[in-house]
Amino acid sequence: MLDLKYQSFDLAFEYPFRTFKGLKTSQPTLVVSLGLQNTYGVGEAPAISYYDVTVEKMVAELQLRSASIGRYALTDPVRFWHFLHHLMPGQNFLIAALDIAGWDLAARLRRKPVYALAGITMGNIPATDYTIGMDTMENMTHRLKLKPMPVYKIKVGQPEDIDILRQLRTLTDAPFRIDANEGWTFEAVKNFLPDLKELGVMLIEQPLPKNNLDEMKELKRLSDIPLFADESCVEQKDVAACAACFHGINIKLTKCGGITPALEMIKEARHLGMQIMIGSMNESSVGTAAIAHLLPLADYADADGPLLLKEDVATGLNYENGKIAIEGAYGLGVKFVGKYGRA
Asked: Would 122 be classed as within a structural domain?
């Protein structure tokens, strides 16, 4: 029997976090635990409003399915994901938390890190960016000054975007990644491209609304700057469609359903000649550790959740000049420090 536990949190951001989709001052999130033979694995799924996912909905589904999950004989995390996928179709966020916990538990039982259990060799880890949310020019420049990083992700979608980027560029030589969260138009991006190239923008993430694939195809033809899909690429079924419109995809464990489907998405994207970013949705160190174990397979890392939050629920994840290091030897390598309730 699997010992299933959970705990919900509402983690405050260090600064108000605004994107084109809205403003947040805290990140609701759900941490789950799976126990077997006095060994426990943990996983996490943050709640994201524009995917219509709340902690309350995830907890209700978890309670409904807890008996079936508890009876599962977990021997292989990939098979466990397929079980969850059929048990709770469409519940990618909750499945991701349980899948990550399953990988953590299976790796701890085998006395291995998750990356080794997945057949990944640790090395060549890309540095993560640090995200600066949309705000006044004064606040955005203030945050950049306070957080020296090797690369920044800048949230855009304001009329003064280019002016803000020009001001930020006077403060650092670090590369910029731009994330519009579907907030730009085709004509705007086309007009911005020369300025963005001049300003040292290394990639543009989700410039247009997710279903504007015809315009994205034309934009890909015009752009010397790599274009990455986020909202346009949620699950593995979306990868092939994105290949004609984007140079790369941002794979997020929470939205695709965890480590297991993320590994398959990476394989397919590489087969199609696409670049890979592995991204976060403001997870604590629990969810970010899962991202970290996959980073040797990525070209870019967007794993700055713990850097954006005032508080954390786990220890063992460290950042050194943007590179993530994990202290623990087995599983995810982090230690949950909260308290659980029972499903």
From this structure: no
Is position 121 within any domain?
no
Q: Which two tokens stand for residue 252?
A: 């997020």
The pTM assigned to this predicted structure is: 0.96
Sorted by sequence, the CB contacts under 8 Å of residue 132 that are 6+ apart come out as: 140, 143, 144, 152, 153, 154, 155, 168
Do residues 17 and 163 share a domain? no
Residues with Cβ within 8 Å of 166's Cβ and at least 6 positions away in sequence, in order, are 199
Give, in degrees to the nearest 5, the angle at Cα 136 between 132 and 142: 55
At CA 223, angle to CA 217 and CA 224, rounded to 5?
140
What's the number of domains the chain is made of? 2
Question: Does residue 196 sit in the same domain as residue 278?
Answer: yes
User: What tens digit of pLDDT does each residue of 103-123 get?
Assistant: 999 999 999 999 999 999 998
| Amino acid making up residue 266 | I
**Residue 10, domain extent:** 3-116+337-342
CA distance 191 to 180: 15
In a domain, 189, yes or no: yes
Same domain, 77 and 159: no
Q: What is the CATH number of the domain that holds 305?
A: 3.20.20.120
Give residue-wise pLDDT tens across range 202-230.
Answer: 999 999 999 999 999 999 999 999 999 99
- Dump pLDDT digits (tens) for 118-168: 999 998 899 999 999 999 999 999 999 999 999 999 999 999 999 999 999
- Nearest by Cα to 286 from 255, 263, 312, 260: 312
First to last CA, the chain: 14
Residue 52 resides in a domain: yes
Question: Alpha-carbon distance 200 to 286, whole Å?
Answer: 32
